[in-house]
Structures are given as C-alpha cells and as structure tokens.
Amino acid sequence: MEDNDEIIALIDDADERPACPKGPSWRILVVDDDPEVHIATNYALQHVEVFARPLALVHADSAAEARALLKHDRDFAVILLDVVMETEDAGLQMISFIREHCGMSQTRIILRTGQPGHAPELTVFNTYDINDYRTKNELTRVRLITAISAAIRSFHQIHAIDETRRGLERIIRASTALIDDREMAQFAAHVLGSIDTLLQRKTSTLLCAHTGTDDDDARDQPLRVLGASGRFSALLGQTVATLDDHDIRRAIASCLEFEQHRFDLNQTALCLNSGTDEGVIYLCCDTLLNESERQLLEVFATNVAASLGNVQLFEQLNFIAYHDALTRLRNRNRFILDLNEAVARNADTVVAILDLQHFADLNDGLGHEIGNGLLVAVAERLEAELGDCCRLARIGADVFGLIGPEARVNPHHLFALFEPPFQVSEHALPVSIALGLCRMLEDTPSGITLLKRANIALNRAKHDLAVSHAYFMPEMEDSTRWRLEIIHRLRADFAENRLSVWFQPQIELASGRLSGIEALLRWPQVEGGFIQPPAVFIPLAEYSGLIVDIGNWILEQSCTAFAELRRQRGAPQRIAVNVSMAQFRQSNLAATIADVMQRYDLGPGELELEITESIAMDEPKIIVGALLAIKNTGARVAIDDFGTGFSSLAHLRQLPIDAIKIDKSFIAEIANGRGGMFAETITALGAKLGIATVAEGVETAEQAGFLRGLGCNTAQGFLYGRPMPLDELKIWIAGRYDATA
Length: 741
Ligand code: C2E
Ligand code: MG
Ligand code: MG
Description:
alpha/beta
C-alpha cells in the first residue's frame, strides 16, 4: 500500500481528465501549471466521496485561466492552488482575486507549492483565510484526501451557517414587509411570495384564515382561502370546507385541531395562531424540505400569525370607516374613493345619485324602525339587481350612490327597479325617487367633482316635478356658480336693508271694492330697476335657507304696512303674505305668526298666508300639522298658483284652507280658444268645498267679467293695479275710494 502514499506527481499513467460530473457533488478547482499535477490529483481523488457525495474536479492550467474561469463559475467547495505559476507569486495573487474580487468567502483554499521556500508570509494566511498549505512532496494521496475532506467539512459548515443567516435575513425582511400590510389581499401575496423566497424555489401555497367585518366575531366566519399560488391559484376565495382536495382539507383540519405545524412528505401545514384568530399556511413543493428550511418556515409562521391579527384588525377598522353600519353598503367616503378610481380608469361609466322622496314623512309617520327597515330593503334590492356590475353606496340619510355601466345605470332601469313597493314588516311601502346622473366627461378632474355634478343634476331633478331625473350638463355648473353669486349678493343686500316689500291690490269681483293686498318682495337696484325678479331670486333664497330670515322680515313689514293703512278710508280687510316651504319646516312658524298678529293687533282673517300648491302636496304630514297650528292663530290660509301642481281632490279636502288662487296661466286662457275652462272648474270646485277663489293675473275687463260670471270671489292683476310701494298704494287706495264711494 506504499503505492497509495506515493507522491502523486509521479503518477503518469492517467491521461484524459474526466468531465466534471453533474448532480450534487463537491466541486473542486485545481489550479496548477504542471500538467502532471492535474493527472495525479485526478487519479488520487477518483472514487472518493465526502459526506456521501462524490468530488467533481475542474482544472485550470494557469492563474490566468483560473481567473477567466472564475468570472462565470464560482461554485467551488475547495480550490487546490499552486503558488508558483506564471510568476513566483501568481498563486498568492490569485488568493486576493478569489476572496476580494470574486467575493468567494466560503470556498476553502489549499495552497500547494513545489518548493518549501515558497511558503507564503504569515500575513497572507491571516488576511486571506487559507485552509492549508502543503508542499507537493508532502501531499500523498491519503494526506490529500484528508486535507480535502477537512476543507469540505469546513466549507459545508460555513455554507450552512451562511444559509441560515441569509434565511433569517429573508425572514426579517419578509416580516417587516408584512407588518406594513393593511389589506388582506396584499398581505397574502406577500406571505406567498416570501415563502418562495425563503425556500428559494417555486411552491404551491394556500393562506387560509377567517375574514371578519365590523361586528362579527371572525371565528364565526368560515375559514377561507385568502391567498393562493402555483397550482392552487384557482382556489382563491373558496371556503376551506368546500375544497375538492381531501388531502388539503385533512392536513389543514389536523393542523388546526392540534395547533401544530405538520411536515409530511410532500405537504406542509403551518399553524397560524395569533391568540385572537387562527389560520393555516398549506404548501407543497417538488423537493423535500430539509431541517433548516423547516426551521425557517416555523420562525416565519410565527411572524405571519402575529401580522395576520394586525391585518384582520385593520380590515375591520377599514370596514367600519368605509361602510354604512345600517345597510352595510359603502359610505360616502368610500364612494368618493370609488369615484376617484373610476376617474383614474377613465371608465365608461355613469354616476347616479338616488334620493328617496318623502322619506322624512315616512320616518316620522311609521317610526324610525320602519324607516331603517326601508333603507335596508332598498339597499338589498339595489345589491341584488345591480351588485354584480355597480359600486353601491349610501351617501346620505336617504340618498344612495351608484357607479356602473350606462346599460344598467339609467333612469329607465332605475325607475323600473323602484316600481314594486318595498316590504318592511307588515307594510308594503311605495317609494318614489329623484335621480341625478352624470356621465364621465372627458374633463372630469376628480371623484369629488363627479359627485358634485351628480348632485347638481339631482337638485335639478328634485325641482322639476314633471320628470324626477336629470343628467348633468356643463351649463348647469356655470349656472350653479351664477346662483351662488346671486345668493351671496342677496344675503349682503338683505343685511344692509336694501330689500323692500311692495303690495298689489285684490278686488272683490261682486262689489269692485278693495278687499285685500298681497305683499310681494322686491330686490331693487341702487340706480332703479330690479336686480333679479322674485321668480329667480326667491327660489335661490329658499335653496340657501335665507328665506327664513327674509320671510320673518316680510311678515313684520307687511303687518306694519297693514296697521298703517288701517287708519285710511277704504283700507283693505286683509293682507296676504307668501310663505315658503323652508319657513314651514321651522317648528315655530305658528308661534311667530301668533306673535306678530298680537303685536300688530290683527284680528282673525286679517292675515292670510299663501303657500304654493307644490308645497302643499310635497310633504303632506308636515304641512297639515303646520296649517292646523296656523289656523289656530286666526290667520287664513290660501293655496297659491292652484292648478300648476298635482294635487288630488281628495288631498285638497284634507287641507284646512280658506282660499285657492287660480294660477294666472288659466286666466290668460280666458281670452283665447280654450275659454277659461280650467278657471271655471276650479271656481266650481271652490264653491263646492266652501273655499273662496281668487283669480291671479287679471289683465282685461273681459277676464274680470267672465270670472264675475263664474262666481269667482276675488281678482288680482294689472287691470286693477300692479304691485307698488306702500306710499303709492296709499295714493292708489285714496283714488279708488274716491272713485267707488
Ligand atoms: P305669486 O305669489 O303667485 O305672486 C303673483 C305674481 O303675479 C307676482 O309676481 C305678481 O307681480 C304677478 N302678477 C300680478 N298681477 C299680474 C298680472 O296681471 N299679469 C301678470 N303677468 N303677472 C301679474 P312677482 O312679484 O314677480 O312674484 C313671483 C312669485 O315670487 C310670487 O308668485 C311668489 O310665489 C314669489 N314671491 C313674491 N314675493 C314673495 C315673498 O315675499 N315671499 C315668498 N315666499 N315668495 C314670494
Ligand atoms: Mg302669492
Ligand atoms: Mg300666484
């Protein structure tokens, strides 16, 4: 056996170098300028295995060749390196190249030299982490194998330590990313990606957990696949209980039952138990997991469990922040985000805002529970009919928002959807809606603008009793700006006492005597003329709420004027004042009226309040109550512009009213072909119900004669007198009294 211990340099019978075998072998790079050393090394190391893995030798005949090779191939456990090659210290130079330039810190280096005199300085050993230094003479086969084995063992340890360190680094990096996650989908994607990074191979993985919302206990919800990768991708969203794969279900169930990780041959189930909630990571990969990989997964699972609790908590908070607790639809804030998203996508969508009409009445009449029930029923119907294609939200008390394709979000469909009544406990409640719609225009800058535009359209729709829907058009925005400007100026002028009240006479048709006057608001310009006619600025004053203060002021002015006129001969018997809906909504309207009547000493029937027909029919419950309270003060009530609204006879009979004012459009017809048919019907109706009739806009003697013939009680119009300031009215009254007296 002495042969085996021969100096390997002497062996010269092996000629061809065998090709480097593939597979898990220890790769060894032999760098030497002596061809015989290569042959001898091959020979000495053939059939040698270290830790049950063969050796694979790669050869370089010079330092230059080795450098070239290391540029693209650095996967070596050991390098056997000759010291003297192209130069005296070519091998020593090589060491710094390997360690510093190539960054190969794990690879072990065994230096070999022909002459003992070429031993490197001690500093080289210390600086460059050299495993061994031998003269070629010393390296018998056995010693070579021993040296190589020791080097490989050392390489293996260094490698394992390094892998673990890198694995832990990856866990830390992955876990840090998880802590920042706020949404389950994003969190799940991070977890699945991190597992592949940790194991450095593609896996098929499921992340299963509960999804809770605001008020449920998460554990009451079924366990669901919240993240899925690889061949499991299609399982995303399914509940674990309904998964087809029996193995998966069983592995997950047992993992949860014993609250333990399961490492089986080809499947792994990691238990995620965070104290408040539980979940499982289930994964499969083609190759077996080694011990250190299992440990990495266990550490990682602990971090995932901790973060999972956070994500679930955050999702719950998110749900509460962005959903309406009653209907569980999205809320206004979320709706605006959805709108922003739609704008960003430049999607071909329509935004609709849907307002339930008369909801306040129903809420007051049937109680809040029924009101809430109705809102839920509406939400459910919307969800059932449109949930598949639309974003739905409750954006106000009785206002819903929709974003979706025009094919579904259009007036025709939406009105049809609201045709059947809504069943709420024993009530079948009919609901009518007003709709504001806005198509995505090219210039749409943001979601909030879109909402504003849809709202502008809704306001239009609410004011147009005939159609109850409107699409936003750019002109509306301009008009909105204009309207705000007018409101602003009106508020300022009212504050500076620039408004005035004018009066128009009302004549008793039978006698031709002055019976009353109507107070009409005017907004005079400083240089004369009027800034805007009442038909324009009064609706704006109503819209802005300004009408309440203005209305009170008009009442004072009117009573002052009436009290003043009382001293004059031929004074009117009553004064009529117009009252807006906004004033009716003030709970103290009747008290206010009682107060002025008392202060100005007005007797029963001396003050008449005019409300428009559309108001009278709008919210009957509020109106009837308010009218009864007003009647108790002794004031009269007249319905203005009668015939232009949609009141039913039955309805009219329920209202405690004293007079109806026939709209001037019907009086204007008296002269032409239709011959005043409506004026006739309304007068007859008044007579039947015992209600006085007043004709508005009487401009000709012919109209007056016709109305007198019908039995209409009173007439008001340019024929007798235009609205005028109090001073002019006094003169008008004096003239009229003299003429009729
Ligand atoms: P209204 O209460 O129906 O008032 C009658 C309107 O008809 C007045 O218009 C009046 O000037 C006009 N008018 C009177 N006689 C004739 C006529 O022979 N021919 C024609 N073509 N028109 C005639 P005005 O003053 O422009 O007021 C418009 C509307 O504004 C009023 O209609 C009323 O609804 C509202 N309004 C006016 N003043 C007040 C007020 O003080 N408070 C409230 N809430 N609304 C008011
Ligand atoms: Mg009026
Ligand atoms: Mg009128």
